[in-house]
Input
Amino acid sequence: MGWFSDKTPKTCSICNRSFSGGGKTLPDGILCDNCWSLVEDHFENDDILEEEYTVEGAKQFIANRKKTKTAEPQPKIYKSQPLRLTDSCQNCGASVGDEATVLRDRSPICDDCASSVRIILPLIRILIEEPEEDIEEDAVLDPLNKITYPEFQKALVEADQARNRYQQHYGNCKAIFLVDENRRIEKNRQHIANYVITGRTVYGKVQAQDRFTVHRRERAYQDTITKIEIPYYYRLSGRLSDAIYEGYSGNLIFDHDIPYIYPGDILIIN
Output
């Protein structure tokens, strides 16, 4: 059951691929690192039966996991969407798809133009609950649905003014991230964990490997974001997948402890 440290070629009993080094031995075979990662959490469970800790037990667990993953329905997303007048953005004239934002006067707005005012009109995520039906659904409420195109044009000006205020207050930084909560997510019994900061980008955009500063009274702390996570209900276009943009919420994930970050903190992305 120990980790191999030699470089002797081996064949995984699950996927039949050849590998060297690493691996995990079972009583009746050996697993490559990739296959072991699929069953590790299960095999580290205190309640696992001895007869399950076998190659066949691993194969059965992986098969059941794939079936469960395939059977899982996509989360339902409720997004209020009025009918629109045309298939072109009212502001820039670009072609828009089904996910275009629609203003109160039925004027469609493309993702790029809508994102330009999120600094003052961010999307709002709520949870719709129906206790009698035992249903919970994520809901995305868009304040742009409640304004007209003339009001949108005014919002563009106000958004630029808001960016100027952030630049004057925080200097020449890449982004500002407001922390809502922090969590520790343990991955197995060895207490290997990810540390997750949930919050919203109020200025600029935040990406993986960005370095930030948070100021405490006694000193300033600096750290690097390991990766980011975009909630499912915000993935309206591929453009949003690489960063947490202005007015959008998301998770900053760290592979190490971050005991100096608190809810309400402002992270200045350098």
About this structure: Residues 77-170 form one domain.
